[in-house]
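Postdoc handover notes: sequence design on the structure in folder B. Input tokens:
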């Protein structure tokens, strides 16, 4: 198994409660990671239940394939292809969909993946290492304005301008290929530091979101999730920063489609955060697709 580290599933209990798992149901885990949520889902499914697990990361997929369970079906794909992947399996609608967004602990902890400024590695940051452009390749060719906009919009970084300028000046001397090299460059361009946060945090988040087109994929996926759910089916999304949460909140706003299961997002208890610091910024939003009677028959037109 090539997952050097483990991933502790975040908000596991509330996620399962919100999914209201039916033993004979069909479920989608859009973000398998290391399968923390998937394993717990399988535990609740009966013999006729099914779980379709997606991940973009080939290492996550390898670990999913190690689970020997005929009820588990594995898709190496982004969750925004949920419609075509379910269709290819002859599945029309499912009972529940879980998206636990962002990166997994093994992705962050493996230096070669290039996600973290805490380890020195190549500036890759691709979740799907079989395709696409690495962060380093993009930084080598993007113009200063695009670099500034990515860092500002996806990192909400107020020093985006100075960081972009520093990157463009530095790469004229020497290519920027390593995580620590970029982190040092960012630190030199940032004038004040936020407490308890490395100065490179926002820039790394921004590049990761850009390289993986994370927000665009989420925006594409959410309406497809609506279409893929049975009436009364559940959608559960765990997000880790305000940009993701805003998209989810917006998608669940339509009361003719969704009944939200709690007005406010569910967050982790102090005990969970103590045990798993990744849970600190997690927000879970859950909704139930409204059924025909609740919609005055519109559901029928839609179906
Ligand atoms: C927070 S981890 C999920 C952890 C998982 N719930 C567990 O308990 O092990 C997020 C995972 O989602 C994957 N991922 C992120 N965006 C994705 C997308 N658009 N499609 C499919 N997988 C995605 C990442 O590769 C990563 O493995």
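Designed sequence:
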């Amino acid at each position: 198994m090539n997952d050097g580290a483990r991933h502790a599933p975040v908000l596991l209990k509330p996620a399962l409660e919100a999914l209201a798992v039916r033993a004979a149901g069909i479920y989608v885990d859009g973000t398998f990671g290391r399968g923390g949520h998937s394993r717990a889902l399988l535990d609740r499914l009966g013999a006729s239940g099914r779980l379709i697990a997606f991940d973009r990361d080939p290492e996550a997929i390898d670990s999913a394939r190690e689970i020997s369970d005929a009820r588990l079906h594995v898709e190496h794909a982004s969750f925004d292809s949920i419609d075509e992947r379910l269709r290819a399996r002859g599945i029309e609608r499912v009972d529940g969909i879980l998206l636990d967004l962002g990166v997994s602990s093994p992705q962050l902890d493996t230096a070669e993946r290039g996600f973290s400024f805490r380890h020195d590695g190549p500036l890759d940051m691709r979740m799907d290492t079989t395709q696409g452009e690495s962060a380093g390749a993009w930084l080598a060719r993007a113009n200063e304005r695009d670099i500034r906009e990515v860092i500002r919009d996806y990192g909400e970084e107020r020093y985006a301008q100075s960081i972009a300028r520093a990157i463009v000046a530095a790469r004229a001397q020497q290519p920027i290929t390593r995580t620590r090299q970029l982190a040092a460059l960012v630190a030199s361009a940032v004038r004040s530091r936020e407490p308890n946060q490395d100065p490179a945090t926002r820039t790394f988040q921004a590049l990761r979101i850009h390289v993986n087109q994370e927000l665009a994929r989420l925006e594409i996926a959410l309406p497809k999730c609506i279409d893929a759910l049975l009436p009364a089916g559940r959608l559960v999304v765990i997000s880790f920063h305000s940009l993701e949460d805003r998209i989810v909140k917006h998608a669940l706003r339509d009361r003719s489609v969704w009944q939200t299961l709690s007005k406010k997002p569910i967050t982790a208890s102090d005990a969970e955060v103590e045990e798993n610091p990744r849970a600190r910024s997690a927000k879970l939003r859950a909704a139930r697709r409204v059924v025909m009677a609740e919609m005055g028959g519109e559901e029928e037109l839609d179906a």
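Context for whoever picks this up: The chain has 14 helices and seven strands. Don't rerun without checking with the PI first.
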